[in-house]
Specification:
Length: about 210
Protein backbone atom coordinates (compact mmCIF):
# COMPACT_ATOMS: atom_id res chain seq x y z
CA UNK A 1 0.00 0.00 0.00
CA UNK A 2 1.47 3.34 -1.04
CA UNK A 3 1.86 5.83 1.79
CA UNK A 4 0.09 9.13 1.32
CA UNK A 5 2.47 12.10 1.04
CA UNK A 6 2.54 14.38 4.05
CA UNK A 7 0.72 17.66 3.47
CA UNK A 8 2.99 20.58 2.76
CA UNK A 9 2.98 23.03 5.63
CA UNK A 10 2.48 26.61 4.58
CA UNK A 11 4.75 29.20 6.07
CA UNK A 12 2.92 31.62 8.30
CA UNK A 13 2.88 35.02 6.63
CA UNK A 14 2.63 37.77 9.26
CA UNK A 15 2.73 40.58 6.69
CA UNK A 16 -1.02 41.12 6.57
CA UNK A 17 -1.26 40.98 10.33
CA UNK A 18 1.48 43.60 10.70
CA UNK A 19 -0.18 45.80 8.10
CA UNK A 20 -3.50 45.55 9.92
CA UNK A 21 -1.82 46.41 13.22
CA UNK A 22 -0.16 49.43 11.62
CA UNK A 23 -3.49 50.66 10.23
CA UNK A 24 -5.15 50.18 13.61
CA UNK A 25 -2.47 52.14 15.44
CA UNK A 26 -2.61 54.89 12.82
CA UNK A 27 -6.38 55.16 13.32
CA UNK A 28 -5.88 55.36 17.09
CA UNK A 29 -3.23 58.06 16.76
CA UNK A 30 -5.41 60.07 14.38
CA UNK A 31 -8.36 59.81 16.77
CA UNK A 32 -6.23 60.84 19.75
CA UNK A 33 -4.76 63.81 17.88
CA UNK A 34 -8.20 65.03 16.84
CA UNK A 35 -9.77 64.59 20.27
CA UNK A 36 -6.85 66.04 22.23
CA UNK A 37 -7.06 69.08 19.96
CA UNK A 38 -10.87 69.39 20.18
CA UNK A 39 -11.40 68.63 23.87
CA UNK A 40 -7.98 68.88 25.48
CA UNK A 41 -5.76 66.12 26.81
CA UNK A 42 -7.26 65.92 30.30
CA UNK A 43 -10.88 66.01 29.09
CA UNK A 44 -10.45 63.17 26.60
CA UNK A 45 -11.14 59.68 28.02
CA UNK A 46 -9.51 56.71 26.39
CA UNK A 47 -12.98 55.30 25.66
CA UNK A 48 -13.66 58.31 23.39
CA UNK A 49 -10.44 57.61 21.48
CA UNK A 50 -11.48 53.99 21.02
CA UNK A 51 -14.92 55.03 19.79
CA UNK A 52 -13.49 57.60 17.35
CA UNK A 53 -10.98 55.06 16.03
CA UNK A 54 -13.65 52.37 15.70
CA UNK A 55 -11.85 49.85 17.89
CA UNK A 56 -12.29 48.26 21.31
CA UNK A 57 -10.82 50.03 24.33
CA UNK A 58 -8.55 47.05 25.01
CA UNK A 59 -7.18 47.45 21.49
CA UNK A 60 -6.16 51.03 22.23
CA UNK A 61 -4.24 49.95 25.32
CA UNK A 62 -2.62 47.02 23.51
CA UNK A 63 -1.64 49.07 20.48
CA UNK A 64 -0.64 52.42 22.01
CA UNK A 65 -0.60 52.07 25.79
CA UNK A 66 -1.97 54.43 28.43
CA UNK A 67 -2.80 58.07 27.70
CA UNK A 68 0.72 59.45 28.45
CA UNK A 69 2.23 56.75 26.23
CA UNK A 70 -0.26 57.66 23.52
CA UNK A 71 0.80 61.31 23.77
CA UNK A 72 4.42 60.22 23.49
CA UNK A 73 3.61 58.20 20.37
CA UNK A 74 1.93 61.23 18.78
CA UNK A 75 5.06 63.32 19.33
CA UNK A 76 7.57 60.61 18.41
CA UNK A 77 5.80 59.63 15.19
CA UNK A 78 5.44 63.30 14.24
CA UNK A 79 9.22 63.58 14.55
CA UNK A 80 9.96 60.35 12.68
CA UNK A 81 7.31 60.81 9.98
CA UNK A 82 6.53 57.09 10.18
CA UNK A 83 4.17 54.86 12.13
CA UNK A 84 7.08 53.84 14.35
CA UNK A 85 9.37 55.51 16.86
CA UNK A 86 12.77 55.99 15.22
CA UNK A 87 15.83 56.96 17.24
CA UNK A 88 17.96 59.85 16.00
CA UNK A 89 20.80 57.54 15.00
CA UNK A 90 18.47 55.53 12.74
CA UNK A 91 16.98 58.46 10.84
CA UNK A 92 17.99 58.78 7.19
CA UNK A 93 18.73 62.51 7.39
CA UNK A 94 21.02 62.01 10.41
CA UNK A 95 23.02 59.44 8.49
CA UNK A 96 23.14 61.79 5.50
CA UNK A 97 24.42 64.61 7.71
CA UNK A 98 27.12 62.40 9.17
CA UNK A 99 28.20 61.29 5.69
CA UNK A 100 28.25 64.81 4.17
CA UNK A 101 31.80 66.06 3.51
CA UNK A 102 31.41 69.73 4.50
CA UNK A 103 29.62 71.81 7.10
CA UNK A 104 27.36 73.77 4.73
CA UNK A 105 26.03 70.58 3.15
CA UNK A 106 25.36 69.16 6.63
CA UNK A 107 23.45 72.31 7.57
CA UNK A 108 21.34 72.32 4.42
CA UNK A 109 20.43 68.64 4.87
CA UNK A 110 19.31 69.36 8.41
CA UNK A 111 17.32 72.45 7.39
CA UNK A 112 15.51 70.33 4.80
CA UNK A 113 14.72 67.71 7.45
CA UNK A 114 13.33 70.33 9.83
CA UNK A 115 11.14 71.70 7.03
CA UNK A 116 9.54 68.24 6.83
CA UNK A 117 9.30 67.64 10.57
CA UNK A 118 7.97 71.04 11.69
CA UNK A 119 4.49 70.87 10.11
CA UNK A 120 3.94 67.40 11.56
CA UNK A 121 4.96 68.61 15.02
CA UNK A 122 2.76 71.69 14.63
CA UNK A 123 -0.26 69.36 14.55
CA UNK A 124 0.52 68.17 18.08
CA UNK A 125 1.81 71.47 19.47
CA UNK A 126 -1.50 72.19 21.18
CA UNK A 127 -1.16 68.94 23.10
CA UNK A 128 2.39 69.84 24.06
CA UNK A 129 1.33 73.27 25.26
CA UNK A 130 -0.93 71.67 27.86
CA UNK A 131 2.19 70.38 29.60
CA UNK A 132 2.21 73.02 32.35
CA UNK A 133 -1.16 71.80 33.62
CA UNK A 134 -0.53 68.07 33.20
CA UNK A 135 2.41 66.65 35.21
CA UNK A 136 2.76 63.57 32.97
CA UNK A 137 2.88 65.71 29.83
CA UNK A 138 5.25 68.17 31.48
CA UNK A 139 7.68 65.38 32.30
CA UNK A 140 7.36 63.99 28.77
CA UNK A 141 7.98 67.33 27.09
CA UNK A 142 10.93 68.09 29.39
CA UNK A 143 12.46 64.75 28.46
CA UNK A 144 12.02 65.44 24.74
CA UNK A 145 13.41 68.98 25.10
CA UNK A 146 16.50 67.64 26.86
CA UNK A 147 16.93 65.00 24.18
CA UNK A 148 16.66 67.67 21.48
CA UNK A 149 19.34 69.70 23.23
CA UNK A 150 21.67 66.69 23.33
CA UNK A 151 21.01 65.97 19.65
CA UNK A 152 21.78 69.61 18.75
CA UNK A 153 25.11 69.37 20.54
CA UNK A 154 25.97 66.24 18.53
CA UNK A 155 24.97 68.08 15.36
CA UNK A 156 27.24 71.08 16.00
CA UNK A 157 30.04 68.75 17.11
CA UNK A 158 29.70 67.07 13.71
CA UNK A 159 29.99 70.51 12.09
CA UNK A 160 33.04 71.35 14.19
CA UNK A 161 34.73 68.16 13.01
CA UNK A 162 34.88 69.50 9.44
CA UNK A 163 34.88 73.31 9.85
CA UNK A 164 35.79 75.95 12.46
CA UNK A 165 32.82 77.41 14.35
CA UNK A 166 32.26 81.01 15.45
CA UNK A 167 30.98 79.89 18.84
CA UNK A 168 31.55 77.27 21.49
CA UNK A 169 29.68 73.99 21.11
CA UNK A 170 27.15 74.72 23.85
CA UNK A 171 26.19 78.17 22.54
CA UNK A 172 26.04 76.93 18.96
CA UNK A 173 23.84 74.01 20.01
CA UNK A 174 21.49 76.33 21.89
CA UNK A 175 21.07 78.52 18.80
CA UNK A 176 20.13 75.52 16.66
CA UNK A 177 17.84 74.21 19.43
CA UNK A 178 15.96 77.52 19.62
CA UNK A 179 15.69 78.25 15.91
CA UNK A 180 14.51 74.79 14.87
CA UNK A 181 11.69 74.75 17.44
CA UNK A 182 8.22 74.16 16.02
CA UNK A 183 7.15 77.53 17.45
CA UNK A 184 9.50 79.25 14.99
CA UNK A 185 7.85 77.40 12.11
CA UNK A 186 4.42 78.48 13.31
CA UNK A 187 5.47 82.11 13.66
CA UNK A 188 7.00 82.35 10.19
CA UNK A 189 4.92 79.94 8.11
CA UNK A 190 1.54 79.80 9.84
CA UNK A 191 1.36 83.41 11.05
CA UNK A 192 3.57 85.41 8.69
CA UNK A 193 2.74 83.45 5.55
CA UNK A 194 6.23 82.28 4.63
CA UNK A 195 6.44 79.34 2.27
CA UNK A 196 8.06 76.15 3.63
CA UNK A 197 10.87 76.66 1.09
CA UNK A 198 11.58 80.14 2.43
CA UNK A 199 11.55 78.79 5.99
CA UNK A 200 14.08 76.12 5.01
CA UNK A 201 16.36 78.71 3.37
CA UNK A 202 16.08 80.89 6.47
CA UNK A 203 17.23 78.06 8.72
CA UNK A 204 20.12 77.06 6.48
CA UNK A 205 21.32 80.63 5.88
CA UNK A 206 20.96 81.57 9.55
CA UNK A 207 22.94 78.58 10.74
CA UNK A 208 25.66 79.09 8.14
CA UNK A 209 26.06 82.76 9.12
CA UNK A 210 25.85 82.30 12.88
CA UNK A 211 27.71 79.05 13.30
CA UNK A 212 30.43 78.86 10.68
CA UNK A 213 33.56 80.98 10.88
CA UNK A 214 34.51 83.01 7.79
Amino acid sequence: MTAMPSPVKRRYDATRRRQAATRTRAAILDAARELFTERGYAATPMSAIAERAGVALDTVYASAGRKPELARLLIETAISGTADVVTAEQRDYVRAIQAAPDAETKIRIYASAIRAIAPRLALVLGIIQQASAEPELAALWDEIAQRRAANMRRFVADLAAVAPLRLGLDEAADIVWATNAVEMYQLLVSQRGWSPARYERFLADTWCRLLLAD
